[in-house]
Amino acid sequence: MTQPRWLRNVRPYGAPAEDLLIENGRFSQRRPASNEALSATDIDGQDQLLTPALVESHVHLDKTLWGQPWRPNSAGPTLKDYIANERRILREVTAPIAQRAGALLENCIARGSLTLRCHVDIDPEFGLRHVEAMQQLQEKYRDLIDLQLVVFPQTGLISRPGTAELMREAMALGVENVGGLDPCGIDNDPIAQLDFVFKLASEFDRGVDIHLHDKGELGLWQIALIADYTQRFGLQGRVMISHAYCLGMLPWNQVKPVAERLSTLGISLMSSAPADCAVPPFLALREVGVNLCLGSDGIRDAWSPMGNGDMLERAMLLAFRFDLNKDEELAAAFEAATVNGARALGCEGLGLEIGQPANFLLMPVQTLGEAVVARPLREVYRGGQLIASAGRLLESRL
Running DSSP on this structure, what letter comes out for residue 68? Predict the structure, then answer.
């Protein structure tokens, strides 16, 4: 139990300056900013912007080449080419998963992400090795970050014998979410894949997070099918569809009825706001109540040399992708990297309200919009304690 302390002279979301009392790692009181002298235990906010910590809603830590010698991207043009290229590269890399993933995880924390969902590969070739490495990191960094895992059948589920058994073993080990991948495009059997995924999630009381790259009307049909399964298995509010490029490829009048159903069922969407393909129409989806959050996807891996784990930069990329220029639009992009992610991941409320965990950022900017545009260096607090500053974790565990 820590001593109560005041967070002084901060501007929540850019509002007029306030003081917030932190007790036992949570916000317990708020008041207008006081002119009283600072005590030894007070945090001097220096009139900075106060926001909740960031949420990284979709990343593949186990695949990263972070900290490794540079590798030119050598993948072919198709999704299956990329999968095969990645398998070859990961066979060649000698640095342990926990070393590469741990270095990237520390970087994500230092940039302000204190909640993170990681998709973890399983495959009959290497079994549960990636899962076991990521669970070690879960324990190692438990006091710094809320790290969720999704078991991810990258090379196929129904079409890859032995994968279903590994997914069940991963659930027994405590992995929090069941993953899936292109029920049509990879497995060529959407009913069989979704039957397995949703039955497994229901049996173990887990969430569902499905990669969906399939495009156009085929992709939209699968989203409607996922909605059917969500309703049938009573998993409202616990399902995410990642990428969903198809929603940005079709006319809105065709997408809207499906989007309204996603809203009703509490099915969230995740986008990395990529440059090379269609992106779900952020503002239109928001208007009908669909929760869209942001993720980095792959960072410095066999898929792409890009990425740095900064979710403020990801919010900027979303804003850039959709030409979001108004302050209220930029604030919506910020929400996609914070509270929307918390909602999608089913986390304890992420915010600045009384009773919430004191997990927050301090930034030397005026507004949420400026934070998205400038992506300033920031101070990162967990439970009211400073853990990172100027892009560095105060105490590395590598």
Answer: S
**Helix, strand, coil tally for the chain in percent (to 5):** 35, 25, 40
Q: At what angle do helices 327-336 and 311-321 cross, to 10 degrees?
A: 130
pLDDT, one tens digit per residue, over 94-152 is: 899 999 999 999 999 999 999 999 999 999 999 999 999 999 999 999 999 999 999 99
Closest by Cα among 152, 144, 137, 148 to 174: 148
Closest CA to 268 of 311, 298, 236: 236
> How far apart (Å, rounded) are the C-alpha atoms in residues 313 and 137?
25
Q: How far is CA 256 from the centre of its chain?
A: 25
Token code pair at residue 53 = 């910590």
CA nearest neighbour of 190 among 149, 159, 163: 159
Structural domains of the chain in order of their starting residue, each with its CATH number:
5-52+351-393 (2.30.40.10), 54-344 (3.20.20.140)
CA gap 212, 208 in Å, rounded: 12
| Side-chain half-sphere exposure of 120, counting CA atoms within 13 A | 32
One-letter amino acid for residue 215 of the chain: K
Task: Check the CA dihedral 74-78-79-84 and report its sign.
Answer: negative
pTM: 0.96
Rounded to an integer, what distance in angstroms lies between the CA atom of residue 165 and that of residue 161?
9
